[in-house]
Please model this.
Amino acid sequence: MAATPASGGGAYSCETAGGTREWMEALAAFLVRHRPLLEAHVVNFFKERMWELVDAEWMECLRREPVESLLKLPSGCVQEHWPATLREFVLTARSLVIPREQKAPQSLVPDVHVASIGTVLAQGMNSKKKHEIENLAAVVHAIAKSCGAKTVVDVGSGQGYLAQALSFEYKLPVVAIDASSHHASVTIARAERIKKHYAAKCVEKQLLTVPRTVTCHVLSSDTLAAVTLDACKDDHLEHVRETKACTSKSPQILESTQSSPSLILAGLHACGDLSVNMLRVFVACEQVKALVSVGCCYNLLSEDSYEDTNTCPGFPMSKAAKLSKLVLGKSIRDLACQSVERWRSLTLDIVLQNFDVHAFRAAFQMVLEKYFPEVSRLSPSIGRQGKALRRQRLRKVVESQMAMEKIDNLSCSNLKEQNMNTDDVDSVVHGVDTEPDDIHHDECRKFALFKDFTLSGLGRLGCGSVEDMSLLEIWKGVQPFSEYIGPFWCLRAALGPLVETYILLDRLLFLQEQNSLVEALLFPLFDPTMSPRNMAIIAWKLSVNSSEA
Model:
């Protein structure tokens, strides 16, 4: 029987700076203890025998577990027959994770009203985006109203979905900042179409304004502050089109100007350092009264090397995290992007396909090591597009029995052509030549898929071909250990939410370390199954009178 999963974060609180520091210290200690598992990269799984990084008793137990149990492991579900040390690892990890179950916006702002986005505003949005925009727009509007902010600055606005919802549904002036001029053009054209629709609906004459757009590569918080204040000076300007890099620092960012209205910064999955720069601008600019930011792409954050103290990296931000000198690195930050909620909801077939892809990629690395060492030394990436194409191809093969039979027959016939009979193939693939038909069928299919994956990867890297028998030799060597891929991945995935929690708490503590006139909190705004990066950092500035009260 499975134990009830821990909800996460139960023993810790981030309501005060002291509580947040204590939580981060516990996280750092746990992460340091399991650093070899954190730093492991699946491409080197076979090459470096990474299953040996894990307690042998754990691996022997988990390799026998049903896939359904493995997928629940990162969420804190344990089995009573597991070793005590394994149960302790899983439950301790889960206890350190910030709770991510979605909360109703009304629990944050009692009078908030979540408006349902109509078909015109929702055009082009999938269900995930619609869910995010509806909830985020409602909270931004409520926070802006409560703190007296007059203009919303949508940072990393993309195609303008959030900006347009705020502009047309909530009647707020919006400035949309994005690095892509194409996005700005799409935002403007889309907003004009929506404007015509809303104008036709108005019985009385009503002034409708579209979001103003700014195209700028935000390379620092100074840039973001300068561009934000610049764009908000003229309330009558609808479209601001700045295409330069805007890298110079602005001396006006700390100065109050009567021509700039009070602002609220909003960001839906502002990428990498952009979310961090929003926090710094909120602290530095008097005109910015509040902030609602949902970050993403932790792997793209800049990180302090602790060598240059003049830099302002994306991580760490808080004084406490800087003093701890915990270094994550890109591979560990990438792990923070994993979604245990989504993995838990996948079908068995899809999960097994993903485990196979991990095994194929690790075996492909062995091919590079043996036959193309100069390429392997460059740590090549076969690319997101290549991975997506290979996953899609493998999925089609698995789903189609006819295609599967065809590949099996082709694989075996190719091997026969190289002077090997069927018994030889059985012997090489399985180690024995008397396997049941269903096992032979599955293993022959796996090799065919590995071969397909490898040829695709070699082609993408511009490498030559490798003979089938050479690939078969490599697959024979690694195949017995492929059953460890699933357990290993799930153990490592259990650490991902801890890394994300540490990064989020670092940002929160940065705000808590400011003066007592800043209130800040973390709030699970979206359904994590639909939108894995669902934690919003919400902050606002208190007036002197309210803080004294």
The beta strands are 151-155, 174-178, 212-215, 263-271, 288-296, 518-524, 535-541. The first strand starts at residue 151 and ends at 155. Confidence is low (pLDDT under 50) at residues 1-7, 236-257, 397-436.
